[in-house]
Automatic annotation (TrEMBL):
Topological category with respect to the lipid bilayer: Multi-pass membrane protein
Designated name of the protein: Apolipoprotein N-acyltransferase
Provenance organism: Psychrobacter arcticus (strain DSM 17307 / VKM B-2377 / 273-4)
Bilayer-crossing regions: 20-39, 45-62, 69-89, 101-125, 137-159, 171-193, 200-219, 494-512
Species lineage: Bacteria, Pseudomonadati, Pseudomonadota, Gammaproteobacteria, Moraxellales
Functional pathway: Protein modification; lipoprotein biosynthesis (N-acyl transfer)
EC numbers, comma separated: 2.3.1.269
GO molecular function terms listed in the Swiss-Prot or TrEMBL record: N-acyltransferase activity
Pfam families, per database record: CN_hydrolase, LNT_N
UniProt entry tagged with the keyword Zinc-finger: no
UniProt keyword annotations, A-Z: Acyltransferase, Cell inner membrane, Cell membrane, Lipoprotein, Membrane, Transferase, Transmembrane, Transmembrane helix
SUPFAM superfamilies in UniProt: Carbon-nitrogen hydrolase
Domain CN hydrolase: 237-484
UniProt entry tagged with the keyword Cell membrane: yes
Amino acid sequence: MRLSTVDLQKRLNPEKPKGLPLVLTILIAWLAGAIFIFALAPYGFWPVALVSPAILYALLLPQMSGKRAFFIGQAYGTGLWCVGAFWLYTSIHVYGDTPVWLALIMIALMGLCMGLFHGFLALTFNRLVGKQPLSFAALWILQEWMKTWLFTGFPWLFVGYAFTEQYWLSSLAPVAGVFAVSFVAVLLAASIVELLRRRGGYLIATFALLIISTSLWLINPQWTKPKGTPDLSVSLIQGNIPQDLKWLTEYQIETLKIYATLTSTEWGRDIVLWPESSIPMFQDEAVGFINEMVKMAKETDTTWVTGIPYRDQADFDPKMDKYPPFYNSVIALGSDAEGMYKKQRLVPFGEYIPFEGMLDILPNLAGSQDIMSYSRGSDSQSPLRVRGHNLGAAVCYEVAYPDTTRKNAINTDFLLTISNDAWFGTSAGPLQHLQMVQMRALENGRWFMRATNTGVTAIIDHKGRIVKRAPQFERTVLRGDIQARVGNTPFMRFGNYPILMVIALLLLLSYLGKRATPRTRVID
């Protein structure tokens, strides 16, 4: 076959693909990521959770180099995290005494680092798999899942959380978890783009999944059932201790007085729950106060559950260690109560220093010898035993980890989470955190008690609905009743394995299909 002069010139000097300038494309991608925050609490405008990934999908569809695709995905992820997690600024600047300029740089660096997840998503979508909605949604779930474990994880800003109270879609949560909700939402978003391009064949799979989800919502299967015991009366204590005073030695006694006073009218309830580290000292430093509270609890037939730093003197060898191991813990005391839970998922640089052992070989690093970290609790801890029931626990942000909460929920009748979100002030952080607790309740079919220092303190039922909540930034008590439930949701039984197997199969098929398609050389 002979080539014409024109054909030969086209092969030797291929034209660059037509499209938007790279700078404009990156700006649009950044804005698409930034607007995602409006899909989550406190705004709750869930359609944005479809629009945001749809824009990224559309931007990645034209033929382009891998470098260009990576920059587009990186821009999207950076916008997503710089805006969606800007609540970190409060803890860094206001409570961390970091200058404004440095705090902003730290937020930007965090956004760039977390943006790498979407950067590699875009690169993989462009180079290794076919460009269609199923592969895009599968890659999206892969990067969300990786955020739960890679480099200890930062499992925030998942698409599925935008649909926590949209039961036509979140009914998938007890079946396959938040990732299944995210998968269908992103698949729907990408399919809408294809429909606008007059390529609607991909909508078949999307509609099938939506029909399944909506059917589950309408049929309303009861994955778990009431235990058959009376509901328990609970009082959740919200001390509203200012973060800048909470850990001051001279304010410790005042903190204890505040919680004791708020609780004085609650003795006689089945359960009284205090927030994370509401006793701002180690248990062996507060023995007298604890004994007094336990005495009141037993006299009034009340179970007292509190967050407290726990120092394990029994597991301390002064010849081997500088300090006894200590834990961010929850302990059940008083009437008909037993057990302690030690936090498993610690906050990097907040509760422990990564690679702390390396500091011992840096004697010139100021203060390196005085750094102390919380110890990590075991993966296999027994539930707390409360009022004849098993109670699963999660401390602070570890409730954001779907699989950790799932394991802690097994063989329990209801769940609790305690937190101190005062670190994040009036930002969206505490409300996003509450939304995650709602999703965990829905996934595991269990009621949740959530006690926090400044809010949001709430009682959440097994469908993820907020039954009662206390106002933020008020010193108050939230009273209510909780229901014990038994049985396992499919998610409790199988965890993330089903959805991970589905996305692995989709990515494999898309990869094989990509290899079977002739390649088009693209020059950027």
